[in-house]
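Hi,

Apologies if this is the wrong queue. I'm a grad student, and the batch job for chorismate mutase from Flaviflagellibacter deserti produced an output file that my downstream script rejects. I'm not sure whether the problem is my script or the file. Here is the sequence I used:
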Amino acid sequence: MAVSTDREFLTEARADIDAIDAELVKLLAKRVAVVDRVIAIKAEQGIPALLPERVEEVVAHARQEAEANGAPPDLAEILYRALIAWTVEYEERTLGR
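Support response: The file is valid. Your script probably expects a header line. Output copied below for reference.
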């Protein structure tokens, strides 16, 4: 009997994770749309893609948000550093640098 309940829970949990993942992807798309606007400004003003002080500001904010919301700050930092690395590469490609 417990096996059936465990499997049902696992199925429900996986559905919850899938729904959260779909929302995360939608948020990523929104973030990239904003990045595209930032690229236009950077191109116009000659601002480089990589601004190390901004990277550290974003990572620190992500860690604070994670901690405030019960998520592991180290996980937030790892994810945001990967997201920022991708974003900088994307900006550099788009800016032609």
